[in-house]
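Standup, Tuesday
Yesterday: got the pipeline producing structure tokens again.
Today: sanity-check two examples.
Blockers: none.

Example 1:
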Amino acid sequence: MSVFSKLNHIFHPESVAIVGASEEVGSMGAMFLKPFLTQGFKGSVYLVHRNKTEVMGMKCYPSLRDIPGEIDYVIIAISASNTPELMKECVEKKVKVCTFFTAGFSESGTEEGIALENEILEIACANGVRIVGPNSMGIYSPATGLYLSSGLSSRSGSLGIICQSGGNAIYLSRVSEMRGAAVSKAVSYGNACDISESDLLEYFAEDAETKVIIAYIEGVKDGKRFYSALKKAAGVKPVIILKGGKTEIGAKTAASHTGALSGSANAWTAMIRQAGAIQADTLDELIDMAVAFTHIPPLRQRRVSIMGVGGGVSVLAADSLLNANLLLPPLPDEVKEKLQQKINNPGYIYTNPIDTLDLFKGMDEVRNTVEALSEWDEIDILIPHMAYDIMGIDPEIWIDSGLTKSIVNVLVDCIKKTDKPMAIVLHYVALAKTYQAFSEELRICCEAGIAVFLSMDAAGKALDKFIEYYENIG
């Protein structure tokens, strides 16, 4: 039986029990419960607390044994010392999978913690119960209504997230939705005493709902198997890896965080490259790469055109993309002539990057520029950018009037009507008023399925690795 067949059921439970359920503000028991009450889980939800009869208006059972129905999935938020007995209850109730938020196991480095983890694993393995964790946030599957935190979208997408850190899993799940790369499934797997990063890579490789995989990993327990799983997954879809703990202090922190053995940074870099995966350096770069693979069609050449407003900004934009191994072909005479026929203004600079204040003078100028550049066969992707807080003009003139929103709407409309790949950069945001406009315009772009980057540096780094991926696979 494949790993996919063995794991697929954990994302589709029909009943959930939360052990350690609570209504105390800020408690993990309350955090796990709230999404089940507000975001439409279609199955049965049971609460367990040995000292309470009711939580948030729902009946509380003193133990799993007292629950009358079947239980597929158990979320555990109680002290580590009580978990072996709870695992025995899970066996009696024929539970399929447990998420252990509970910490205090092998990551503690103590003999007691290691022994406790071994004990719960032994009970689980002997009786067919799968464990996510310990020291994890569990599973996010929007299609089935499973959430590892509040504040997550119910919209299902095509991004699979594998994350050893619970906090990073929450951030990646939230920000990916904000950036228009919605999640298919995400797993915070913590100490990986049972279900590991290798299992999850093999699962996501076969998961038809997942088109792109991103992973934050602090360390692995079986390097040979991990390499095999990574190579298999990277052979069928893009896989982007962020390795945590590449420095000496970072590695020590990883060991105390999830009990992970990090390995050398050079060895990881070599392994990721040999497997055909992509290495990211930050969480935000993970998301930038996810955005690129979600919204930009495959590119195998590096020719870019930039358009926007701001002389200094245009200089730095060129530097950013050229430093990222991209190319900026000079604007050919026929494109210049086409633009001059429609926009003949001394303030218009006919170069690449194109820099002109005329983009702020009317929507026809925006549309004409985009259309002319879209027809330029010697570029592979066009990057319009909006640099908000570089203008000496009162923001009320160009923010409150809706000018920037109008420009973004025209860009979105143009992108929908052309076959030329495009990405938008929204950057240089400083004022509170501007940030409100930026947030709204980011939402417009992302809902339209357009790749948006938050700096030209970020766009350059993402496109460099994105194009390299397609260059390598041919």
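Example 2:
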Amino acid sequence: MAIYHFSVKTISRSAGRSAVACSAYRSGEKLIDERQGKEQDYTRKTGIEFTKIYAPENTNPELLDRNQLWNTVEKVERRKDANLAREFEIAFPHELNAEQRQEMLNELCQELVKRHGVIVDAAIHAPHTQSGSDERNYHAHIMFTGRQIDLETGDFAKKRNRDFNKENSSQTVNQWRETFADLTNQHLARAGHLSKVDHRSYADQDNGLQATIHEGSKVTQLRRQGIDTEISLKNDLIKEQNTEKQHFPEILKGLEQEIRLTESQIDKYKLDMSLETIKRLSSTMETPKQAETPKQQEKPLERKIEPSTRIEKPKLSATQQFNLLTEQLARQKQQKVIDKLRSEMTELKSDYAKQTELSKKPKPMFFGKLKWEQEQAETRGNLNNIKRRFDTNKTKISHLEEQKPYVSHDEYKAVAEKHPALHREMLKEKEQQEQIRQRQRNLEPTRSRTASKDRER
């Protein structure tokens, strides 16, 4: 299921931050901070999947260089409490691949340039699974300047962009949150996925779900180390309750399907019992009640049971019987696959419980901390893999139960070998049907010639 994350942050000088340092970290490059006289080197940073700078047309080419761009911003913004840049932090749906993520980022950044006329510096980051991050956590940092580009000069405008000032910021951010949700749903649909995201809060959606508490960097770091906190435990409980509520419709649907299947089986059983009862009655009525005058009672009895003996199941053709047998064999084969997947899911549940117990191992106070951290990282990776395999099996079972069993050549061959007489009769029927179709095709030219002659007359 796709998740929605869109946050807006401010990179401010008053907080002791540098636009050059922020850009170097996000892009994984080495930039020179001329204002502070420092070299910001993040070339060893891993997980940088894609970086790109977006700008309006007629922008000064010097500003398309990352180092030149943010040093210019540091010079233009002279106040000691200046907001140097703003940043959109977004999460990509885990259903999208690398190419689809880049297409989605391009579309979002181009729209940002179009609306506000600013320069955008974007980077896609892959998750750091070794440090305990979720393997689905592909996200992007989208930095953009606080001043728009003067299209006449190609440099920064003298006045700052007012779309994100105190008066308009809330409305502008809400519009962007909605835009990003719509864009995400478009790309999910384009990639063939039915899941959707919603930018509104759970309260606005009125779906009965509870919002989690913001954890922050410190709580997240402790969580990755396997250390539980009051906030993380409460969030885990909220997520579990929300998951149960979201699965209620699926559970109800499954129960309704089981009820319908049971009702159909009961109806079939009743019909079979009725036919069996009629057979027994007819066989009982055929035996003479009086041994003295069997000839006199034979005719009336036959006349009485005549209507009941005509109640028979419709006779199926050889082709229909053969198809039913192959479908039954394919259904049995499909059920074996489902049973195997369910058995594997039971084993995965057991493995998940064992790994969960290992994850609760307390951190040593003095010796063995490094080994404990390595074991906890391995355990978290195992838990993620088990959950992914469990969800995959669940999806496979759902698809198999919904689709009609596929009859392959193996089922056809098996039924033909077990019922050779029925197979020959089926082939004979098909041959007769083909002869009838051939006669019809042969008659069509004659009919067309007759019709043309009639038109000529």
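Quick observation on example 2: The first helix runs from residue 19 to 27. The chain is about 60% helix and 10% strand.
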